[in-house]
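Researcher: I'd like a candidate sequence for this fold, 266 residues long. If you have to choose between options at a position, lean toward the conservative one.
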């Protein structure tokens, strides 16, 4: 599965580069708005929620056909989410850079561009379209690519969520000295999800790293247990996109009181 997604990402970069040269993106960098630190939002007291906007996925199919970016991210912000994750892959997830821009305009939360980042061109796209951070998937990159993209992102003042799924990938992320480690409970080769993955890898993450648990999280009880073992943040997408009242569900996940944007577990 992941090989197809990576190949599609590379093809997409090639097509977009023909339409908008990287030099054009570079010239737009001075127009970026004020900084919204993504990493800092994940380490405040309590378990931070990164609320995701996505329309569909290869594993789940159609998730939401009616949600709009502005309404959804507004609900996330009111519910107490610490940050946003916006899918920008069009072919497999129904996302776009327009979704990134719409999210930036609709709320004040820091934003992660979630995509298969395989080329520095995508970092410039992220920077000029409203992202504060990017996802780097260790499984999708060799060591040279991973290090190059990590350093290039930091050079553009983009935080990085470096995603791993198993022990060898975690070792590679730690060799990079990544500050924010995402533990994806989904096996990207076959699509299966097992939240135990986070519990198995947590003991090997050194103190001082920010840890984000990803995929397969849908209940308050799961969040409480993840916080108990030291997870700093969770990334939740499908459960929120399918909720009839996403604001209320974020509030339940974060423990936010009415009218506040605190994100804590009691």
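Model: Candidate sequence:
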């Amino acid at each position: 599965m992941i090989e197809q997604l990576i190949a599609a990402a590379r093809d997409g970069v090639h097509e977009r580069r023909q339409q908008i040269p990287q030099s054009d993106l570079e010239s737009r960098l001075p127009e970026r708005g004020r900084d919204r630190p993504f990493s800092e939002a994940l380490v405040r007291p309590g378990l931070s929620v990164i609320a995701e906007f996505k329309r569909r996925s290869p594993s789940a199919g159609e998730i939401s056909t009616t949600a709009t970016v502005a309404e959804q991210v507004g609900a996330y912000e009111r519910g107490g989410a610490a940050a946003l994750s916006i899918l920008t892959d069009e072919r497999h997830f129904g996302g776009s850079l327009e979704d990134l821009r719409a999210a930036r305009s609709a709320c004040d939360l820091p934003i992660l561009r979630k995509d298969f980042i395989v080329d520095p061109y995508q970092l410039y796209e992220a920077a000029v379209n409203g992202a504060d951070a990017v996802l780097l998937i260790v499984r999708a990159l060799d060591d040279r690519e991973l290090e190059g993209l990590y350093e290039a992102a930091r050079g553009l003042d983009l935080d990085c969520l470096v995603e791993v799924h198993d022990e060898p990938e975690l070792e590679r992320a730690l060799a990079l000295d990544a500050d924010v480690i995402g533990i994806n409970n989904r096996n990207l080769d076959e699509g299966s999800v097992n939240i135990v993955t986070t519990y198995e890898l947590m003991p090997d993450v050194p103190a001082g790293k920010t840890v984000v648990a990803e995929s397969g999280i849908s209940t308050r009880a799961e969040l409480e247990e993840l916080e108990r073992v030291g997870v700093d943040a969770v990334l939740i997408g499908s459960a929120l996109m399918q909720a009839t009242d996403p604001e209320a569900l974020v509030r339940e996940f974060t423990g936010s009181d009415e009218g506040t944007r605190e994100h804590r577990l009691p």
